[in-house]
Write a structure and sequence with these properties.
InterPro entries: Flavoprotein-like_sf, FMN_Rdtase-like_dom, ISF_SsuE-like. This is Iron-sulfur flavoprotein. GO terms for molecular function: oxidoreductase activity. Keywords: Flavoprotein, FMN. The protein has one domain: Rossmann fold, CATH 3.40.50.360. The protein has a five-stranded parallel β-sheet, sandwiched between helices. It is of the alpha/beta class. It is built from seven helices and five strands, in the order βαβααβααβαβα. α1 packs across α7. The mean pLDDT is 97. The two termini are 12 Å apart. The longest helix is centred in the last third of the chain and has 24 residues. The structure holds flavin mononucleotide (FMN). Flavin mononucleotide binds next to α1. The site of flavin mononucleotide (FMN) has 17 residues, from α1.
């Protein structure tokens, strides 16, 4: 059982960064294999929409994004944590997600999926917005994640909206951490059920 924890924030030791590490700690405690992907550390360039992947199923770029995309097929769950930037996910995370277009192309253009579509994977999205809660603060980000999880054949089962993070440190807020723990434990439970079913 392997969980990928994707941190979309470029900031070290702030909200998304610390929540990603908190989740990693829960996985560790429960003996679940996990990996944190700090997208800001990846040596990657943006998708240029060249269409090569629509003909080959893979990205022609040989950077860290191409190798990281390959980690999602064998994974059992993905938890994405991102700041809200201009009502959306961070630019760094969006750039990373766009590079999954090769998976989309392999499935829908080439009909030769580069990901096992029958495997049961589980996904959660945790979003951190600096402002006090307002209408549609998280709407765009969640729409992106909805499509992203579909592309990586992952059931989007949990989401958490954390507003007001410029005032309250999410990693020091007990109610927030309890919710992050609940989500992490649910992901573990769902993975275990699949394993037991064989
Ligand atoms: C470029 C930029 C745009 C932002 N846009 C929004 C926004 O639209 N809504 C919001 O609630 N917070 C916004 N924020 C605040 C961040 O969501 C907030 O600082 C968050 O805690 C950052 O996540 P991090 O602590 O994990 O880095 C923005 C911050 C930056 C730098």
């Amino acid at each position: 059982m392997k969980v990928l924890i994707v941190n979309g924030s470029p900031r070290i030791q702030k909200n998304s960064y610390n929540i990603a590490r908190y989740i990693a700690g829960i996985m560790e405690k429960n003996g679940v294999d996990h990996e944190i992907i700090d997208v800001v550390k990846l040596d990657m360039t943006p998708c240029i929409g060249c269409g090569v992947c629509s003909r080959t199923g893979v990205c022609f770029k040989n950077d860290e994004s191409t190798s990281t995309v390959k980690k999602f097929d064998p994974s059992d769950a993905t938890i994405v944590v991102s700041p809200i930037y201009f009502n959306s996910i961070s630019g760094q995370l969006k750039m990373f997600i766009d590079r999954f277009q090769s998976l989309y192309a392999s499935k829908y253009d080439l009909k030769k999926p580069a990901i096992d579509r029958s495997k049961k994977r589980f996904g959660a999205f945790i979003a951190v917005g600096g402002s006090k809660g307002y209408e549609d603060q998280f709407t765009s980000a969640e729409l992106i994640m909805d499509l992203y999880f579909k592309v990586i054949n992952t059931r989007f089962i949990e989401k958490l909206r954390i507003p007001d993070s410029d005032r309250v440190n999410a990693w020091e807020d007990k109610a927030t951490l309890d919710e992050v723990e609940r989500i992490s434990l649910r992901i573990i439970e769902e993975m275990k059920k699949v394993k037991q079913q064989g």
